[in-house]
TrEMBL record, chain A:
<comment type="subunit">
    <text>Homohexamer.</text>
</comment>
<protein>
    <submittedName>
        <fullName>DRTGG domain protein</fullName>
    </submittedName>
</protein>
<dbReference type="InterPro" id="IPR028979">
    <property type="entry name" value="Ser_kin/Pase_Hpr-like_N_sf"/>
</dbReference>
UniProtKB/TrEMBL annotation, chain B:
<feature type="domain" description="Histidine kinase/HSP90-like ATPase">
    <location>
        <begin position="49"/>
        <end position="138"/>
    </location>
</feature>
<protein>
    <submittedName>
        <fullName>Anti-sigma regulatory factor</fullName>
    </submittedName>
</protein>
<dbReference type="InterPro" id="IPR003594">
    <property type="entry name" value="HATPase_dom"/>
</dbReference>
<dbReference type="InterPro" id="IPR036890">
    <property type="entry name" value="HATPase_C_sf"/>
</dbReference>
<dbReference type="Pfam" id="PF02518">
    <property type="entry name" value="HATPase_c"/>
</dbReference>
Length: 118, 149
């Protein structure tokens, strides 16, 4: 699934610049605990989170996360967006809840990065 | 990969705006040197966990790195409260982090175990009231002192 398709499914807003909407996303991981993102090797996936601080972007950078979706319409501040731009990590914002975000992406074929899919 | 590199980053305690930037810079250096992606990720994650610990708990610290054709070595030295019981701190889920750290998504007691998981060698020396020195090594191409002779 491409990032562009994910944007469409979630009705999301892209808040980073020069975002490659053709970027392929194969897996997703959902967490508000960055410790879990770091601990469970969810590399190369989409991160779905309700946290918007700059550590989310730095965590995504070191863990090789491909893109981040912020749920419930939460927007990170301008410095966090700038950090994401500098690291080439696309940021999307959806008004959907975390449950609805995960549900719609799963329904459209996206699967867990944590490897717990049959 | 035959090049070598070393350097140091300085860390300021409670500076959450820049927390993680040293590890992010280190990741960029490793990428630029052509180190395999899996090793870069392991080193970056371990360095990030250690950097966050220093920024959460210490007044100040420094991260030194040394990259050789054999290994990536990172040393975090901090002026912090020290760790009274290292075995206890190594247990998954054990944490002394305050609530505001947990609200940032950290402090769940996974940091030190995750550093151990991602590295080939981990050494922690700590003196209560003075600080902690944490050093980890990741061998390149599966090399270790035992197998490389």
């Amino acid at each position: 699934m491409t990032l562009g398709e994910i944007r469409g499914i979630l009705g999301a807003l892209v808040i980073t610049q020069r975002t490659d909407m053709n970027k392929e996303i194969g897996r997703a991981y959902c967490a508000d605990l960055m410790s879990d993102v770091l601990a469970f090797s969810v590399t190369q996936s989409l991160l779905i989170t309700g946290l918007t601080n700059v550590q989310v972007v730095r965590t995504a950078d070191v863990a090789d996360i491909k893109a981040i979706v912020f749920v419930q319409g939460k927007r990170p501040d301008i410095d966090t967006i700038a950090t994401a731009d500098s690291k080439n990590i696309p940021l999307l914002v959806t008004n959907l809840s975390m449950f609805e975000t995960c549900g719609r992406l799963y329904e459209n074929g996206l699967r867990s990065a944590a490897g717990d899919t049959p | 990969m035959t090049k070598s590199s070393d350097g140091v980053f300085f860390l300021t305690g409670k500076d959450f705006t820049n927390a993680g930037s040293a590890s992010s810079n280190l990741k960029g250096i490793l990428d630029d040197m052509g180190i395999p992606a899996d090793i870069v990720r392991r080193a970056a994650i371990a360095a990030f966990e250690a950097e966050m610990n220093a920024i959460i708990y210490a007044v100040a610290g420094m991260m030194r790195y040394s990259i050789t054709p054999e290994a990536v070595t990172v040393t975090l030295q901090d002026m912090g409260p020290g760790i009274p019981d290292i075995d206890l701190a190594m247990k998954e889920g054990y944490s002394t982090a305050p609530d505001y750290i947990r609200e940032m998504g950290f402090g769940s007691g996974m940091g030190l175990p995750n550093i151990k998981k991602n590295t080939d060698k981990l050494t922690i020396n700590s003196v209560v009231g003075e600080g902690t020195t944490l050093e980890f090594v990741i061998y390149l191409q599966g090399l270790s002192p035992e197998t490389s002779g």
